[in-house]
Amino acid sequence: MNGALIVNGFLNTDKFRDIYSRLENAFSKREVSLSLYANSELIAPMGEKLPFRDTPDFVLFWDKDVSLAKQIENENIPTFNSSSAIELCDDKAKTTLALHGFPMPKTIIAPKTFPNIGYCDLDFLDDVVSSLGFPIVVKECFGSFGTGVFLANDMDELLKIVREHEREPLLFQELIGESFGRDIRVNVVGGKVCAAMLRESKNGDFRSNITLGGDMKVYIPTKKEADLAISACEKLGLAFGGVDILFGKNGPLICEVNSNAHFKSTYDCTGINLADFIAEHIIKQMLCICHYSLHCHSEA
Ligand SMILES: Nc1ncnc2c1ncn2[C@@H]1O[C@H](COP(=O)(O)OP(=O)(O)O)[C@@H](O)[C@H]1O
Ligand SMILES: [Mg+2]
């Protein structure tokens, strides 16, 4: 069995390279080769085969290039995570809509505008404020590492944040005060929780992201938290995912779900290598697919 690991050709930091080599090692330990490709190497007109060196049996898609993931699926190559799951997680507005009915902070998706236009009037913010009250969390729908998440304590701050970011899709959320500066990251693979950590900001920031200086501790999720993380991943169609959970007044709340959660911090904190769980899960899924098609052929 041979797989392809697809990564973004334009993200070349040590943090990303560490993840890729952990994934390659986890598969090679199990005698499955994983060939690395940048998305920028896989260029082909629609309907024509993508230029893989060897057609892979499966693809581990560690990127958010949803169009490329769909093109691969069109070639009937099993893809983990699937393009649709990645698409739902990449856009926080889509995640919120897909998780309709799940406990989440009260959320308002900003009205759509266009990058070359922005908002010519901001009257709608009065409705946002009267529904959510201050403080309000403003999020870029496509942000990560906490860098696109802001806090507005009053109308002046809200106007400033929205003016600075009006050319990209945004959403507004009530601040979950009980969770100020802390949340839990729960890693799920194949419908099971494999690792979790408590993340706490030590510099007064309301965001607990490790990249912003958050501290981390091993955490044993309650049954409610674990079940919430598992069912969110199931609903989004994720084979593996990193779920951020906030401490709400009345129980856990989904903050966001990551389809390509960086797991170096999880490893540093817990000693658990999620690459092993991911490799094992994909190999098992592939064996099921092979078994199923053998069974169908023998019955035909
Ligand atoms: N509604 C909220 N109330 C309280 N804290 C929040 C809220 N939304 C986000 N946070 C904090 O901000 C961090 C980053 O937000 P998140 O939605 O996970 O964005 P990112 O994709 O950038 O990690 C979270 O880990 C959490 O600590
Ligand atoms: Mg997050």
What's the tally of helices?
9
Tally of extended strands? 13
Bound molecules: adenosine-5'-diphosphate, magnesium ion
How would you sum up the global shape? Answer: globular
User: Would you state the CATH class of the largest domain?
Assistant: Alpha Beta
CATH architecture of the largest domain: 2-Layer Sandwich
Biggest sheet overview: 5 strands, antiparallel
What is the helix fraction of residues, given as a range?
25-40%
CATH homologous superfamily caption of the largest domain: ATP-grasp fold, B domain
* Order of adjacent strands in the largest pleated sheet: 11-10-9-12-13
The chain-level structural class is alpha+beta
Helix and strand succession?
A: EHEEHEHHEHEEHEEEEHEEHH
**What name is given to the CATH topology of the largest domain?**
D-amino Acid Aminotransferase, Chain A, domain 1
How would you state the average pLDDT, rounded? 95
Overall structural domain count: 3
Round the Cα radius of gyration to an integer and report it. Answer: 20 Å
Subunit organisation of the chains: single chain
Distance between the termini: 24 Å
Description:
It is globular and about 60 Å long. It folds into 3 domains: 2-80, Rossmann fold (3-Layer(aba) Sandwich), CATH 3.40.50; 88-101 and 178-277, ATP-grasp fold, B domain (D-amino Acid Aminotransferase, Chain A, domain 1), CATH 3.30.470.20; 107-175, ATP-grasp fold, A domain (Dna Ligase, domain 1, 2-Layer Sandwich), CATH 3.30.1490. The longest helix is centred in the C-terminal third of the chain and has 26 residues, at 274-299. The chain has helices at residues 14-29, 66-74, 83-90, 92-98, 124-132, 155-165, 223-236, 264-270, 274-299, and strands spanning 2-7, 33-38, 58-62, 79-80, 107-109, 136-140, 149-152, 170-174, 182-189, 192-200, 215-218, 240-248, 251-258. The protein is built from 9 helices and 13 strands. Helix 2 packs antiparallel against helix 3 (83-90) and helix 3 crosses helix 4. By secondary structure, the chain is α+β, with helices and mostly antiparallel strands. The chain has a 5-stranded antiparallel β-sheet with strand order 11-10-9-12-13, with helices on both faces. The chain binds adenosine-5'-diphosphate and magnesium ion. The site of magnesium ion (MG) has 2 residues, from loops.
